[in-house]
Specification:
The chain is an alpha+beta fold. The protein has one domain: 4-Layer Sandwich (Phosphatase 2c, domain 1). Helices cover 29% and strands 27% of the residues. The protein is built from 6 helices and 12 strands. The protein binds zinc ion. The site of zinc ion has 5 residues, from loops.
Length: 258
């Protein structure tokens, strides 16, 4: 089951692609409130290309490791920017990434940036992998501009830099900073990929991962976004959080066949 919906009133910068063997969720990083990042392309331009190049690699290079496929997709997307774009700009368009793939008797996952891979095991237990390095940056200056966010000058210094945090942008080496793992296919019952617009149910609003999977089971994937909007509407002080009060929300929930 899948769902992908924009924040109310906005355009959707999330992306999903699903096959019988793998799934991808990307979340385009919102443009920063700075005049020029050296690129003439917008976030959907970047996210669509990165996602389709990633899908191409997943479909055609079945033996390649997930970070290698992500690196190749970053390189291919970078090539499409053309010479007019300055891809060395630290705030060049970027996305967070979550991938899951069936590979032999394993279920492999990759996350980069604050997208999440989650799973339910046969015994009913749940777990998830999120790359939360951006939440643990020492002395990170938060400003209140359009929304509460890290100072863009600070982000420019720590994004895709050692000791900072990593996203898929124009530098393919970021792919090798992904968090990766695999679980025996025998014990995995369901997997989920989610953008942070969905996982705020867990990170902000007290849901457990089992609540997320149970909700989708009982009410369908679309209802999950309804639950997000309901929780956001009931939040007594949405401005306490870093980031937008509402975000694009995407989830892929898949049953793993034995
Ligand atoms: Zn560009």
């Amino acid at each position: 089951m899948t769902v992908s919906e924009p924040a109310p009133g906005g355009a959707n910068d999330d992306f999903l692609l699903v096959s019988g063997r793998w799934a991808v969720v990307l979340d385009g990083v919102s443009s920063y409130p700075v005049p020029d990042v050296g690129c003439q392309h917008n976030v959907p331009w970047f996210v669509n290309r990165l996602g389709l190049h990633l899908g191409y690699g997943l479909a055609t290079s079945t033996g390649s490791a997930l970070p290698d496929l992500l690196a190749a997709a970053i390189d291919r997307t970078a090539a499409e920017h053309g010479s007019a774009c300055d891809l060395n700009h630290p705030l060049t368009p970027a996305a967070t990434v979550a991938i899951v793939r069936l590979a032999g008797d394993q279920v492999e996952w990759l996350v980069l940036g604050d997208a999440t891979a989650a799973w339910v095991l046969a015994d009913g237990s749940t777990d998830a992998a999120t790359d939360d390095r951006a939440d643990h940056l020492p002395n990170a200056p938060v400003i209140v501009a359009d929304v509460r966010r890290y100072d863009p000058d600070f982000v420019a210094k720590v994004r895709n830099q050692p000791g900072g945090f990593w996203v898929a942008a124009a530098d393919a080496t970021a792919a090798y900073q992904s968090l990766t793992g695999s679980i025996s296919r025998q014990v995995v019952q369901r997997v989920g990929l989610m953008s942070d617009g969905v996982t705020r149910l867990v990170e902000r609003y007290g849901w457990g991962w089992s609540d997320v999977f149970d909700h989708v089971d009982q009410h369908g994937a679309r209802s999950l976004v309804g639950a997000v909007r309901k929780a956001e509407a009931a939040d007594p002080d949405p401005s306490r959080w870093r980031g937008k009060p509402h975000d694009d929300a995407t989830a892929v929930i898949a049953r793993v066949a034995a």
